[in-house]
Amino acid sequence: MGRLVVLLPLLLLVAAWASGDEVYTCNGTQLLSAELLAEIRSYAPVVQSIVDYVIQGPERNRTYEELAKFVDRFGARISGSQNLENSIDYMVELLGRQGLDSVYTERVAVPHWVRGNESAWIVRPRMQRLNMLGLGGSVGTPPGGIIAPVLVVRSFQELHSNVSKVRSLTALECALGAAAWWTARTGRDWTVQAIALARALLYRVPSYSCSSLQINTAAVSM
User: Signal peptide span per the entry (predicted)?
Assistant: First the structure.
């Protein structure tokens, strides 16, 4: 019944979308023919039997249990990593055991990022090593690293107003939080431009474009 679990979300979506007497149109054009709608609706009893089997029957909670097992076993699956390859092999084998008759993989080229040795230090007024983590996707530093003053900003607006001070500095964002990030995300071009003037950025998810300067990014805790 693993096959039913895999297909359930799609079946639920189709059943919900095609139920009732609505006529689905886009710019005045009917999206589905009456014949196709009738065929989709004819599967309603089958869909309901699958829903009942998964929610109330022997398959109850199996989807969540399998998902929990999967994420516990493999955790993060970064593109190009061996962990991702192992998780794909696991799913192919699992779906094959559950009786799906068309399980296969395809070769695909994806960006591959490998973590190197990383560190961050306060060098003045005293030497102190910082707890830090280079963020996935960040470019590397030059072989000798980077030494630069730090500009502390507490909002995207503050960063924008200090663009002239950012050149040759390391920009440190303090506790901006997810809300500030999502609020500014749709209009963040000026933020990227300001950051591109800096030599590195601490506490920020890297987001490079083909037209922007790629700088080193990392998260730190004091």
Answer: 1-20
Provide the pLDDT confidence category of residue 216 given band limits of 50, 70 and 90. Answer: low
Count how many residues are written for the chain. 222
Give me the residues paired with residue 201 across strands: 171, 217
Alpha helices in the chain, H assignment, sequence order: 2-17, 34-42, 44-55, 62-74, 82-97, 156-161, 163-166, 177-185, 189-196
pTM value? 0.46
- Check if the beta carbon of residue 216 is closer than 8 Å to that of residue 141: yes
pLDDT digits (tens, 9 = 90+) for 82-141: 899 999 999 999 989 888 888 889 988 887 777 888 888 888 888 988 787 777 777 777
How many angstroms from the chain centroid is the CA of residue 168?
31
Kindly state the helix (H) or strand (E) to which residue 216 belongs, with its residue range: strand 216-221
Domains of the chain: 2-97 (no CATH), 120-221 (3.50.30.30)
